[in-house]
Specification:
There is one protein chain. By secondary structure, the chain is of the alpha/beta class. It contains three helices and 24 strands. The strands form four sheets. An eleven-stranded parallel β-sheet has the order 1-3-5-7-9-11-13-17-19-20-22, with no helix packed on it. The longest helix has about 40 residues. The protein is elongated. One of its GO terms (cellular component) is plasma membrane. Its main location: membrane. InterPro entries: Leu-rich_rpt, LRR_dom_sf, RLP23-like. Belongs to the RLP family.
């Protein structure tokens, strides 16, 4: 089939190795042989297929290293080799694939450092997924040059060092990716989101995810991460990160998943976190956080106590331990009632003083006037006598009326 351009035999039960004769398909542009039971090494025939822009061999049992001839595919845009048994370091000849938009090598046995040339030679990269391998060393600062990046997954490796502050240059996390930015092909990608593993397909352009979890990263969470305004998932769990949670974490208004669990973070939970209105999964457990848990807005819907477990100095809802002030008293509830009672006791003498003054002023305001002004005194007593006579007359008439009825 010398003019065949697209070959998709995925999702079958094919086994054995990839045949060398496949290299005769010189017009091939799309090769998808994923989700089979293929084994053995990847053949060295890729320089015979110069038009390839999609290669998906994921979810098989392929072993060995990435062949050198793959680097001859200068038009390659999507390389998906995830979930195999591939090993070794990433070969430098891959840097010839300058048109790559998606590089997914997750769930293999690759080792060595993350190459710096990824950031130097692949300016169009939208997806970089290296999860679940044996990569070590630091995160190269050259990755910060990948301004189009929307998904960066380095989780479940042995990466160490600091999170580069230059991540603020990843402007792809500051904008939404349009559906025509990944044209014709997306493939499938497994990501940890919303507290579980999710397989994305046909919607990868909607995902903005930064996952550095399960590594040996240290230092503080750089405040520069709070400038990645369109970030949907931020997972830094299971590292050795210290310091405090950045106060401006509330700037990440698009966050749906925030996982900072199993680190060495300390200090209070920033109040700004309550303003992240799209947050559906939060995990701050097993740190050294302290103080009162913020309330209000979205945090009122996240009522699972396990979100905060392992932080012995945290208090307040939804935990059972109440917050206390520096004197060991509860700032709410019974403590306030006692303070109010003490305040009432201190004001009690003034109540009697004011009541006595009121009686004296009221009494002498009336009686003093009658004593001083004679005409008013006569008029007052005539009025009293007249009212007394009317009252006595009314009583006498009612008594007589009742007597006649009897």
């Amino acid at each position: 089939m010398p003019i065949l351009t697209d070959l998709d035999i995925s999702w079958n039960s094919l086994n054995g190795s990839i045949p060398l004769s496949m290299g005769n398909l010189q017009a091939l542009m799309t090769l998808v042989i994923s989700n089979n039971h293929l084994s053995g090494e990847i053949p060295q025939f890729w320089n015979k297929m110069p038009s390839l822009y999609i290669v998906d061999m994921s979810n098989n049992s392929l072993s060995g290293t990435i062949p050198r001839s793959l680097g001859s595919l200068t038009t390659l845009r999507f390389l998906v080799l995830s979930n195999n048994n591939l090993s070794g370091e990433l070969p430098s000849h891959l840097q010839n694939c300058r048109a790559l938009e998606s590089l997914d090598l997750g769930d293999n046995k690759f080792s060595g450092n993350i190459p710096s040339w990824i950031g130097e030679t692949m300016p169009s990269l939208l997806i970089l997924a290296l999860r679940s391998n044996f990569f070590s060393g630091n995160i190269p600062s050259e990755i910060c040059a990948l301004s189009a990046l929307h998904i960066l997954d380095l989780s479940h490796n042995n990466v160490s060092g600091f999170i580069p502050p230059c991540f603020r240059n990843l402007s792809g996390f500051k904008s939404e990716l349009l559906d025509d930015d990944i044209a014709r092909y997306e493939g499938r990608l497994n990501l940890d989101s919303k507290g579980r593993a999710i397989e994305y397909y046909h919607s990868l352009y909607l995902v903005n995810s930064l996952d550095l979890s399960c590594n040996n990263l240290s230092g503080e969470i750089p405040i520069e991460l709070t400038s990645l305004l369109k970030l949907g998932t931020l997972n830094l769990s299971s590292n050795n990160l210290g310091g405090t949670i950045p106060e401006k974490i509330g700037n990440l208004q698009w966050l749906e998943t925030l996982d900072l669990s199993r680190n060495k973070l300390s200090g209070p939970i920033p109040l700004s976190m309550a303003s992240i209105t799209f947050l559906v999964h939060l995990n701050l457990s097993h740190n050294n956080l302290s103080g009162k848990i913020p309330t209000g807005n979205q945090l009122q819907t996240l009522i699972d106590p396990s979100i905060y477990q392992g932080n012995l100095a945290l208090c307040g809802f939804p935990l059972t331990n109440e917050c206390h002030d520096n004197n060991g008293t509860n700032p709410t509830g019974k403590g306030e009632d006692k303070d109010d009672e003490d305040g009432d006791d201190s004001e009690l003498p003034w109540f009697f003083v004011s009541m006595g003054l009121g009686f004296i002023i009221g009494h002498w305001g009336v009686c003093g006037t009658l004593v001083i002004k004679k005409s008013w005194r006569y008029a007052y007593f005539r009025f009293v006598d007249k009212m007394k006579d009317r009252l006595l007359l009314a009583v006498a008439l009612n008594v007589a009326r009742l007597t006649r009825k009897v």
